[in-house]
Amino acid sequence: MPTVQNSQPIFKFKDRLIRHGDPTLICGIVNVTPDSFSDGGKWFGVEEAYKRAIQLIQEGCQMIDIGGESTRPGSTYVEVEEEIRRVVPVIKALRAESDVIISVDTWKSEVAQAAIDAGADIINDITGLLGDPRMASVIAPTSAGVIVMANPVIVRPDHPSAKVFPQFGAHGVFSPKELEAFKKMDAVELIDKYFDKSLEYAQAAGIASERITLDPGIGFGLTKRENYELIHQSQRIHQRGFTCFLGVSRKRFIQNTLNEAGYSVDVATEEGFRQRDAASAALSAIAAFMGIEMLRVHVGEPHHIAALIGNNLRLSNTLDDTHFAAYPIK
Questions:
Q1: Is residue 263 included in any domain, yes or no?
Q2: Which of 109, 174, 194, 209 might form a disulfide with 134, Cβ 3.0–4.6 angstroms?
Q3: CA atoms of 221 and 155, how far apart (whole Å)
Q4: pLDDT tens for residues 48-61?
Q5: pTM of the prediction?
Q6: Number of structural domains, the chain?
Q7: Catalytic site residue 252?
Q8: Residue 12 included in any domain
Q9: Residue of 12, 197, 250, 296 marked catalytic
Q10: Residue 73: how many CA atoms within 13 Å on its side-chain side?
Q11: Residues 251, 274, 276, 314: which is the catalytic one?
Q12: Which residue range is the domain that position 63 belongs to?
């Protein structure tokens, strides 16, 4: 693992600053798509997406992540013009009414440019600047931040867990020799190698390290064990000198864990959604306790509550010595 780049991890973008050690932020997902794996079509439209974003803010989300292309297993490519048509009006509508942090989930440089021009604060690139060769150069001259995600699908395209995903560009970024070597690496080492390459691209384009946060790519072409191990080892990102952005909400390894324990995960039922969100929130409490700076979630309230408990446990020495009265006798 390379030498630490920031002595104290920070994430600085526009006029915002997120420090390692601060309370964990909750980032609510707004999928402006007809086919996202858990809420496809529910917020497909400017008004619906805007209302959903406001609802998430009211539920405790301090950040909103807007996406115009599903990247779930089996999803299909969305043309640049269509993706821009989906996300830009939502950004503008939300920015006109709120100073909430807005990130845009895209790996295409044209969409990123349009999103930044519309008022987005952060570009959330699930290819870690490798999917589109122009992405780093588009972000560099702006004051926007970037979420650099390591994408195992790109470095292990033939892995059984990766074959169900679409391809995300990055053609020729890694040599055949590198791709062959990746097959022998465990997930933690693989993600480290991916970050090395992404950060090379960022540095070459002139993106300051403080404008970057790292995401280990939970759920993308990984086995159940690998997903849990990467979460367990996520503080390695802090050791590199970067803040961490983590997305675990409603991921398939959570569904598998619940299903094997006999819990319902049927997305067609309210019970299935509730069970998945309860398990996802449990991970949010753990992540907040670990000091993960940002958590990407589908619903606000349960994750906000979970992070509140995790943050208080981690930051217990800063809490007031509140005294409690006796329970009332009935």
A1: no
A2: 109
A3: 10
A4: 899 999 999 999 99
A5: 0.92
A6: 1
A7: no
A8: no
A9: 296
A10: 12
A11: 251
A12: 27-250
